[in-house]
Design a protein that fits this description.
3 copies of one chain form a homotrimer.
Chain A: H1 2-14, H2 27-30, E1 31-44, E2 66-80, E3 83-90, E4 96-105, E5 112-120, H3 141-144, E6 151-159, H4 162-173, E7 185-190, E8 205-215, E9 221-234, E10 243-245, E11 251-253, E12 260-272, E13 277-292, E14 297-312, E15 314-316, E16 319-333, E17 342-357, E18 360-374, H5 376-379, E19 380-381, E20 384-385, E21 389-402
Parallel strand pairs in A: 10-14
Antiparallel strand pairs in A: 1-2, 1-21, 2-3, 3-4, 4-5, 5-6, 6-7, 7-8, 8-9, 9-12, 10-11, 12-13, 13-14, 14-16, 15-16, 16-17, 17-18, 18-21, 19-20
């Protein structure tokens, strides 16, 4: 052993220290491929095949059998010390681009950055959270009606101080299904016509958001958020004969196609993370284009909506279970659907997610849905408006893999 | 040298054994990107430009010149000890999803697994075999008419015992162009409307298959397979005026669009692998929707079809040559084409595949085609039905790269 | 230290030399994922919202706001010692395939190769140069009107001798934004209907190109190129009522849809690379289908076009700046646009590209555009032809990331 020590000493003390040049990074050390896949079965115990939920899941309603809801592949990476890039596409049948943006960091400790490209508009909490992490199968109409696919072309300035980033790391490390870091403070501009659509006016929407996670001495975390956006939305999917009316109900244009409507909302979020019992609620209020059956026109109307969810997180051996129940309310239009379709939603969901492994998840969710949705085609016939009410229950299953 | 040995001994015997923690796997160690590309030239010695083969190659007929038949990219990998994922897309011009599934293994030696998502329906041998490995350029109408793109949304239970898996390994190692492991036994359910289509009824198709490779003492291998499926198919591509008639020829509906038709088949396969001479044949029989020119309706009719192929495998230096000749017969409908188009096919092919290297293949194939294919648009005019017979010869070339 | 040396000697001299087998290459050592993303803002100081430039940027004109011009992902690699493969797709909203080809090298030092598949047709310099490297935001109408998307299905023989390849390496190493190696000499055949379109006739286009970079003793480089193609183009996007007329103006067909038109050009390029001041110019002349407003027909007409650009390259610290100004002239048709739209273009551009890092670039470009573009829909009304002249200025911004 002495000899060995002497050899070691020789190596450590007497050989000259050679400075090895860092080899250039290989492409696979710079960028990373990842993603997830969601398969669903919406065919169990459906009580009303006429109840469809277009924005949330095209394969809900009328026995749509097995379906792929999301096939996501992402390419992302730090292409420079201060530049991060992220491209995400959905390949479920046809291709549609989700994200293509870059983050340009403005300070050395990565608190302040500009994001440019197609990305999520920082409005709401649920919209920010990835579908990979959300417990209920779909986002709520209340919040998601603000932004179809949650995204738009935009430029946003984000700021997140160090303490908030530490809490985000804790949330991630503890599998608490966070929304990700979309800034403790965000201020930005976006086209306003939602993702993969070209802008239709010379008016950019503006958005502002403040969100902060407070961690208490017992490790419990409460996140509070307020957010708002404003702009003009141009309707581009309009049935023949649908005009525009003003607040008094006066018809002011005969064709709503290409018309500029006020589009603005303000909202707030409260989240108590499930350690082991959590609570999550959001509310938003605003105004925007909405179909009016009485006059067969689109007009600017008030909208408001909310959801509240109670959820748990229980580890049993290697397995994690997340039971949850959520109630959704929404009264307003969906500007991006046919005739800025008018909605009244009262849904209750009860479900559970089972994670046997981080690569694999199963969700079962029973839904009690009660909905009115009106556009000219569904609800206006021979000059008479008949509201289109649909109610029904269904058991929905989802298997998800993460890679 | 004594000193060296003493140092080695010191290291081996006296230093404490340190347990190195396994570093987490990098993304590129878990998942793998691979694929293949097929370029074709269908412009040589074509005798009948009116002869088109819609399902097999859209660029066959009327001098379609150079074309890309398949541009495939796959992302696959073991995302967990017992979970394998596989995503494959085709990028030839436009994107279409091929596979997006996961395999969940139920036992420790990987004999039994559930596959869920979009994948190949286990019916037939040729349908299972990748186009990357098939000798003729396209699948036969006889078998492929069962399932356009071979795939559907499904959940299937597979079982393959150890001895069969050993034979599959032998087939792969010896470049014998196997179908891959789709189970010695398979039992499953699928939507029934083929890949990337939503389900149209509350009826799932069911499928069952048994297939076994017998390897003899002289290493020769014979594979036998039987398979069947049943369900109801809903026609969604129907010309105006095309109704539905029953077995007696009575018109029972004026619009075949959305109609539920019986759709079922039973088939068998025999394969003798080419060491160096092989033989492959498949037959299937069943009933399903088929256009009837006499009444301009779609009705449930019998269908049957078969192909037989003789092929060789010859290694000359680094090069491998696979000469082959195949005869195809089919009499029945193609449920997924316009008006469940009616077919009578008699094709003979003679060709050779040349593999100078595993990354690169060339195929030349001369085809004698004799086909009748009728739909309302092509064959029904002013109340008169005229069968659409097309016969012709053509030389087809294909270059393939594998990565 | 003596002991150490003796140990080292023992290792080096007395232990048998073990030949380690080369481990097989991993997939990520064979193929590589790379790409780039271009985000634009065309909404500043626009003087004429009616001025659109369909081929170059669909989001130019009428306040199209923020947009993604290109989201490119490539998979490429040496899949064999002598076979290189390259697949590139564009994912900006929808997917479209750009390249899918293989290079098969015919000699040992990689001077001579055949490229087969979808790739750029070797006509012009600007068409060969990647948009990742070009200084102005879009290619010129003068050259790019020859080939929409620059690509087609083809088989081309390329030859580049060693000295030329050395100059290309110098150009790349010095960030001189070269076109890449498309052969000092190229000879090929292509379908003629541009990328992702099927061929429409039994006539392949042929193309020939010679291009050589001369490097002088002071390292200055001059590249000269001549190129030509000929074939028949079939118009497939034709307004109702648009016929075909011959050279004398005689109407010879009532429907120009599916008609075979002469389509041929010859061109030349001069490039002096910016060390630090450069100059680049191209000219081409030919004939092809072009809309004729007087007769509301498409007829074969002469076309010619050119551009000239002066550019600089200045390194300031880690930053590189490329100021440039370009003038474009084109008088002729665009065979692939509606009615082989007739163009007269006089554009002047002044801009600058700023490269703070190789992963990130910013371009600002001010455009003075003066254009006539006529098709039957825009310019022929009630039997009267009125030329559609549009002139206007705009400031355009682009951010690009490379990975």
């Amino acid at each position: 052993q002495d000899k060995l020590v002497s050899v070691e000493d020789s190596i450590n003390q007497e050989l000259p220290q050679v400075e090895m040049p860092t080899p250039p990074r290989k492409w696979f050390e710079t960028i990373k491929i990842s993603g997830y896949v969601q398969s669903r079965y919406n065919g169990l115990f459906e009580t009303n095949p006429d109840l469809a939920v277009e924005q949330m899941d095209k394969n809900w309603g009328a026995d749509k059998g097995l379906s792929l809801r999301r096939v996501r592949v992402k390419v992302s990476g730090w292409i420079h010390e201060k530049v991060y890039m992220y491209i995400q596409g959905d390949f479920a049948g046809e291709f549609s681009l989700k994200d293509a943006y870059m983050d340009l960091y403005l300070d050395d400790n990565k608190s302040l950055w500009v994001r440019a490209g197609q990305s999520k508009v920082p409005f709401g909490y649920e919209n920010m959270q990835s579908s990979q992490h959300r417990l209920p199968l779909d986002r709520s109409d209340a919040i998601n009606s603000a932004l179809k696919n949650e995204r738009d072309m935009m430029a946003v300035l984000y700021y997140t101080p160090e303490p908030a980033r530490e809490v985000y790391k804790y949330l991630k490390a503890n599998n608490l299904k966070h929304s990700g870091n979309y800034g403790a403070f965000a201020l930005g501009a976006f086209n306003g016509q939602t993702a993969n659509k070209k802008d239709e006016n010379d008016n950019l929407h503006t958005v502002v958001r403040a969100s902060y996670p407070f961690q208490f001495a017992n490790d419990q975390i409460m996140e509070l958020s307020v957010h708002a956006y404003t702009g003009k939305y141009v309707t581009t999917s309009v049935s023949e004969g649908v005009g525009v009316s003003d607040a008094s109900g006066e018809r002011i244009a005969d064709d709503a196609n290409g018309y500029n409507f006020i589009d603005r909302r303000v909202g707030a979020t409260f989240v108590w993370y499930p350690q082991p019992i959590g609570f999550q609620a959001e509310y938003n209020y605003g105004e925007g284009p909405e179909y009016d059956g009485a006059t067969n026109t689109i007009k600017v109307q008030d909208l408001h909506g909310a959801y509240a969810m109670v959820m748990g997180k229980f580890d049993i051996g290697h397995h994690t279970f997340f039971p949850f129940t959520r109630y959704i309310y929404y009264d307003g239009g969906k500007k991006f659907e046919l005739d800025a379709r008018s909605y009244e939603v009262n849904d209750l969901e009860i479900g559970i997610e089972w994670q046997p492994h981080k690569a694999f998840e199963l969700v079962a969710m029973y839904v009690f849905a009660d909905r009115r949705y009106d556009d000219s085609a569904s609800s206006f016939n021979d000059g008479v408006y008949t509201p289109n009410y649909q109610a029904g229950n269904i058991l929905r299953l989802q298997a998800q893999i993460n890679f």
